[in-house]
């Protein structure tokens, strides 16, 4: 029996008052205090404006990044109530910004549908902000409050200012650097992607994003009367659609508003995104299941009725009918139940029924009225089914069921001795020469080495059977241990750091892009979990005098700047690293593999939609978008003497 701790008594029980709990454990409320959590603050406030729009009161929501990296969010809704809240005897405005679970979203007469479900948004942002000030425009008056780290600095009062808007709420806040130690700098692209997405998901609503940190000031406004149908067209801009306009379905069943839009393309990858009350349900849920079930059933029924499938033929699978599909499923539910605190998987069974019913009738009618298009969709699924069957044997090779496969991998993979995934790292190394040096340099306890030869297959253009016929890809799947595609299981990951280590040249960049395409299309949860990294081998190593200590530099510009900064008569010893294969084991360890000195870039999952479009553009079949990208981004050298 453990020895009794006599110090554990009533004094050990802490009661955190007000918003102290939020500052003590911010991750419980916003997920993390990294860049992801920082940007989550913005969405908590924006959600309030969106909810006003869903209730029919707001038409325009704006987000502004101020020069000092603070944020201003405004909406033209009803404005936060300013009268006395009966329970507290204090202004309702004060309660909204200082008390957890205080808000109008628990009262169905105020909001039938809401994204900010827990009533913690505004108060949490206030608690985690260095300062916040709020202006509410109601009844031709301006009500003002400001706060410091969640504490009231100025109690609610009327102020004499020019009316910026006729009605609504303006919230301005600056995140607290004591909480967000990693960064307090907002990423314009992250904000842009979400603002645009919210405009797609709420047809008719206008959203604007302004960045005052740049000259000239940048403002972009988004407004889509076509809603998610326009979103599907946007996602398919680098693909060739099978039919011109996306299918769009909308309706209400048992109080659940359902919207579905889809379009098939010539691509192989599937893009399916689902949302509940504007929240991106990354892990899917019942609404997504309802859509998938209906889609598979209707296409199989159509194929049988029109003799495209015979009675004794194997039915088309869900994967078959979704090949090349781009689809958005969006539901507005009055009482959504999410699995887990992250709101990433919907659990309501009535959502599955509503989506199935609403989508089935419309999609079945579309196939009947468009027989040529229907035949194209079915034929694409039949081709996918053949590829799936052809890939079955190759798929089995990746499951470590045969000693032959393990022995074949053993010749390539130098595994680490630890079986703890949290400390285990897999280096995917370009070339046998660099692979040999890496095997000598590595820490055997934690670092595994897998050399790959040349450039792997571009999976963006290849069917699954061709993907699994590629020896290098099979080796990767087997080494990582998670499976891939629909069989992926992140709990089986042998390594929590998978590091792409290629030369710092054009070929190395191409190999890195091919590997990232593979991970994104077949093992995406590895990226979402933050397991994928990119090694940063330097271009130069510089030592001063007789010192063995080196400074590692990545470009000619950095080298020139560093050399110019050297004081006195000390001469620098400069070594240029031409490639990983030309480094000996010591140099490779020192520059790229030593956990104490190396520099790694983590592949951030936050640019999800933008990444999907980028892979379509860079790795897909269409040349024109790729050429346009090169022309816009290439750095041309003038007056080059050859």
Structure, described:
By secondary structure, this protein is of the alpha+beta class. The protein folds into 3 domains: 204 residues, 2-Layer Sandwich (Heat Shock Protein 90); 165 residues, Ribosomal Protein S5, domain 2 (2-Layer Sandwich); 169 residues, Rossmann fold, CATH 3.40.50.670. Helices cover 36% and strands 20% of the residues. The protein is built from 21 helices and 23 strands. The strands form 5 sheets. The chain has an 8-stranded mixed β-sheet with strand order 7-6-5-8-2-1-9-10. Helix 8 runs parallel beside helix 10 and helix 13 crosses helix 19. The radius of gyration is 28 Å and the shape is globular. The termini are far apart.
Structure characteristics:
single chain; 642 residues; alpha+beta; Heat Shock Protein 90; Ribosomal Protein S5, domain 2; Rossmann fold; 8-stranded mixed β-sheet; 5-stranded mixed β-sheet; 21 helices; globular; disordered C terminus
Write the layout of secondary structure elements.
Blueprint: H1 20-24, H2 27-30, H3 35-54, E1 60-65, E2 71-75, E3 84-85, E4 90-91, H4 92-98, H5 121-127, E5 129-138, E6 141-148, E7 151-158, E8 168-175, H6 188-201, E9 206-211, E10 218-223, H7 228-235, E11 247-253, E12 256-264, E13 271-276, E14 279-280, H8 286-305, H9 318-321, E15 325-332, H10 349-369, H11 371-397, H12 403-410, E16 425-430, H13 432-441, E17 447-452, H14 464-468, H15 471-480, E18 497-501, H16 506-522, H17 524-528, E19 532-535, E20 540-544, E21 550-553, H18 556-565, E22 572-576, H19 585-593, E23 600-602, H20 608-619, H21 623-633
């Amino acid at each position: 029996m453990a020895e009794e701790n006599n110090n554990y008594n009533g004094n050990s029980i802490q009661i955190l008052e007000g918003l102290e709990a939020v500052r003590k454990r911010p991750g419980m409320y916003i997920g993390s205090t990294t860049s992801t959590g920082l940007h989550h603050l913005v969405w908590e406030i924006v959600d309030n404006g969106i909810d006003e729009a869903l209730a029919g009161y707001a038409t325009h929501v704006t987000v502004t990044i101020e020069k000092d990296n603070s944020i201003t969010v405004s909406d033209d809704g009803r404005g936060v109530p300013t009268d006395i809240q009966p329970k507290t005897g204090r202004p309702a405005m004060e309660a909204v910004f200082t008390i957890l679970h205080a808000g109008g979203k628990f009262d169905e007469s105020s909001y039938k549908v809401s994204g900010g479900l827990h009533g913690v948004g505004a108060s949490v942002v206030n608690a985690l902000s260095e300062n916040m000030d709020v202006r509410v425009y109601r009844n031709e008056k301006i009500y003002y409050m400001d706060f410091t780290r969640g504490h009231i600095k100025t109690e609610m009062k009327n102020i004499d200012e020019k009316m910026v808007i006729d009605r609504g709420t303006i919230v301005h806040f600056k995140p607290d650097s004591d909480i967000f130690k990693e960064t307090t700098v907002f990423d314009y692209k992250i904000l842009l992607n979400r603002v645009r997405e919210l405009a797609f998901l709420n047809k008719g609503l206008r959203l604007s994003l302004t960045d005052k940190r740049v000259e000239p000031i940048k403002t972009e406004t988004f407004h889509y009367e076509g809603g998610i149908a326009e979103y599907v067209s946007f996602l398919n801009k680098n693909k060739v659609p099978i039919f011109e306009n996306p299918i769009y379905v909308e309706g209400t069943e048992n109080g659940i508003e359902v919207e579905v839009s889809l379009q098939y393309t010539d691509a192989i990858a599937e893009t399916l995104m689902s949302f509940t009350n504007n929240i991106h349900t990354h892990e899917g849920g019942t609404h997504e299941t309802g859509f998938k079930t209906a889609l598979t059933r209707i296409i199989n029924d159509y194929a049988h009725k029109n003799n495209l499938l015979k009675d004794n033929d194997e039915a088309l699978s869900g994967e078959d009918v979704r090949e090349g599909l781009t689809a958005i499923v969006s539901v507005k539910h009055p009482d959504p139940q999410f699995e887990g605190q992250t709101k990433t998987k919907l659990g309501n069974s009535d959502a599955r029924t509503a989506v199935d019913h609403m989508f089935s009738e419309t999609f079945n009618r579309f196939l009947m009225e468009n027989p040529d298009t229907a035949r194209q969709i079915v034929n694409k699924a039949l081709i996918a089914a053949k590829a799936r069957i052809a890939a079955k044997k190759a798929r089995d090779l990746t499951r470590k069921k045969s000693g032959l496969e393990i022995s074949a991998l053993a010749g390539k993979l130098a595994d680490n001795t630890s079986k703890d995934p949290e400390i285990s790292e897999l280096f995917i190394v370009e070339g046998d020469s660099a692979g040999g040096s890496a095997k000598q340099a590595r820490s055997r306890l934690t670092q595994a080495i897998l050399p790959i030869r040349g450039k792997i297959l571009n999976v963006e253009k290849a069917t699954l059977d061709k993907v699994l016929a590629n020896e290098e890809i099979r080796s990767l799947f087997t080494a990582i241990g998670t499976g891939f595609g629909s069989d992926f299981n992140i709990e089986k990951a042998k390594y929590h750091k998978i590091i792409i280590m290629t030369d710092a040249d054009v070929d190395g960049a191409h190999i890195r892009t091919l590997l990232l395409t593979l991970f994104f299309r077949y093992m995406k949860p590895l990226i979402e979990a933050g397991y994928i990294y990119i090694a940063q081998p330097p271009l130069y190593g510089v030592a001063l005098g007789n010192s063995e200590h080196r400074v590692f530099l990545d470009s000619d510009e950095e080298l020139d700047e560093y050399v110019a900064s050297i004081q006195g008569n000390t001469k620098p010893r400069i070594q240029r690293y031409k490639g990983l294969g030309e480094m000996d084991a010591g140099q490779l360890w020192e520059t790229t593999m030593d956990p104490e000195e190396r520099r790694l870039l983590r592949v951030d999952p936050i640019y999800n939609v933008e990444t999907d479009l980028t892979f379509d553009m860079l790795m897909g079949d269409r040349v024109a978008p790729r050429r346009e990208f090169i022309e816009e981004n290439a750095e041309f050298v003038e007056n080059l003497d050859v």
